[in-house]
Amino acid sequence: MKPEYKHLQAAHCENGVTTSLLQHYGVHQITEPLAFGIGSGLFFIYIPFMKVNDGPAISFRTMPGMIFKRTCKSLAIPILRKKFSSKENAKQALDNRLAEGHPAACQVGVFYLPYFPKEYRFHFNAHNLIVVGKEGDNYLISDPIMETITTMNSYELERVRFARGPLAPRGQLYFPQKTGAVTQEQMKHAIITGIKRNVRHMLYAPGNIAGISGIRYTAKKIKKWRDTLGLERSRSYLAQLVRMQEEIGTGGGGFRFIYAAFLQQAHAYFPVDELMDISKQFTKAGDLWRDAAIQASGIYKGRLTEQHDYNIMGDHLLEIAALEKEAFNDLAATLKKLR
Amino acid sequence: MQNNCSMKKEDIPQDPSALQNVTKEVSYAVDENGKYVTELSAGWDVKIKALDVAWSDIEKKVAGARQKVLNKEASPLLYFMELKLMDIEILSAYTGFWKWQVKRHLKPSVFEKLSAKKLQRYATAFDVTVEALKNVNWNETGV
């Protein structure tokens, strides 16, 4: 069974899967930045009572699964998402889908993902890929992180589909159910919905750990890390922050550059000058995040050790918070002009 | 420092990372007309070092676990748990044992009495043989 499937490499796995599947089913307008923006992917959260790999739980994007769900919903495309308790049923459901000539996306864990380099294999269970076909015992995998289609045998695929621990995928399979083109009107409507929701999440998220206030909260925390955690642990904490911000999948600058690209592409649907200006503000935000990462790296490389250096790091985040607040306020004001 | 200069296509870092020979990353940057384009990046020194920090922390934990096992303060399960980047919660999820059971099995005295069947559950979770669990090869290098 050698399927016709156009592999798409993307910055982020869920954006990539969403874009790739929707394109496959005839939504030719969709791009990675549009999927990210329509899915309101930009976010910030620091969950103080949770630990990831012994470090802080920080995310620069929305919850796993939401980008696909929101983007399809905004475009009125029904989706099917299924979890399995039995490995046999999970395999059968996938095989049936492939036998019908259709691809299906899987949520998987990366710890046992055979084609990933060892250095990247943590117990992270919210990776996404598309299974596009099967040859003998080998599944053809379109993983948006990779440059080309790869393969996994049935045992390898089963092991990553049934990875255990936090966010365990439990064999999860998902795909758009109805297929076909969408109109420009639908795209416009989806872009507005996506921007509105993202403004709400960044400016008005409840509590002080999410959105703009989450960035400020993290700034305050960082200034205290040297005292409360000691030099060694605060180095590890800052390294983790930078990994969440810059690692493979983010497109750089904690997803801020992808969001800036989204606003440029939205401009093609709504020729309103403000969108281009606000896009520049997000580019600036991405640049500032990268400057902050350079400062953090001075600390975790052991070159910077003083409290003053942590204060500078915290101040970088405060500056970013102010800039992003302004950008989202401008975006909220511009929404009225989008029609 | 890249102050006052926005992310340009030609500024995308190309520092060889662990992804070398596996893939390059899609990065977003602006071209000479200010339009967003994608460009492949080999890696960035700043985040390569961040990943190094994470791995050096893991190596320290593995070394600590190794010493505890050698001192008979912990069963070999602790060593494998750290080697495979797991914690009690993840190990419990992979083996189907309760967390309190895993904690007990981390004691050398309890571990020694584990049945072959139970040992097999741990061996499968760690992707090693039961033999390797009982007679740890300290030269094992990781995942």
The percent range for helix content of chain A is: 40-55%
CATH class of the largest domain in chain A: Mainly Alpha
- Largest sheet entry of chain A: 6 strands, antiparallel
Structural domain count of chain B: 2
- Radius of gyration of chain A (CA) equals 21 Å
- Biggest interface, and residues per chain? A-B, 58 and 44 residues
Compute the number of strand runs of chain A.
8
Gyration radius of chain B, to the nearest Å? 22 Å
β content of chain B, as a range? 5-15%
Describe the strand arrangement of the main beta sheet of chain A, using strand numbers.
3-8-4-5-6-7
Oligomer designation? heterodimer
What portion of the residues of chain A fall into strands of 2 or more residues? 5-15%
Would you summarize the structure shown here?
The complex is a heterodimer of chains A (339) and B (143). Chain A is α+β, with helices and mostly antiparallel strands and 339 residues long. Chain A is 52% helix and 14% strand.
Give structural notes.
- Chain A has helices at 13-24, 32-38, 66-74, 87-99, 154-161, 184-204, 211-246, 256-269, 273-300, 307-335, and strands at 42-52, 55-61, 79-82, 104-108, 127-135, 138-142, 150-153, 173-176.
- Chain A starts with 12 loop residues before the first helix and ends with a helix.
- Chain A is of the alpha+beta class.
- In chain A, 52% of the residues lie in helices and 14% in strands.
- In chain A, α2 (32-38) crosses α8, α7 (211-246) crosses α9 (273-300) and α7 (211-246) packs across α10.
- The interface between A and B is large, with 58 and 44 residues.
Which labels suit this protein?
heterodimer; A: alpha+beta; Four Helix Bundle (Hemerythrin (Met), subunit A); 2 domains; B: 143 residues; mainly alpha; 434 Repressor (Amino-terminal Domain)
SSE order and pairing:
The complex is a heterodimer of chains A (339) and B (143).
Chain A: H1 13-24, H2 32-38, E1 42-52, E2 55-61, H3 66-74, E3 79-82, H4 87-99, E4 104-108, E5 127-135, E6 138-142, E7 150-153, H5 154-161, E8 173-176, H6 184-204, H7 211-246, H8 256-269, H9 273-300, H10 307-335
Antiparallel strand pairs in A: 1-2, 3-8, 4-5, 4-8, 5-6, 6-7
Chain B: E1 25-30, E2 36-41, H1 45-70, H2 76-83, H3 88-95, H4 99-105, H5 108-112, H6 116-126, H7 130-134
Antiparallel strand pairs in B: 1-2
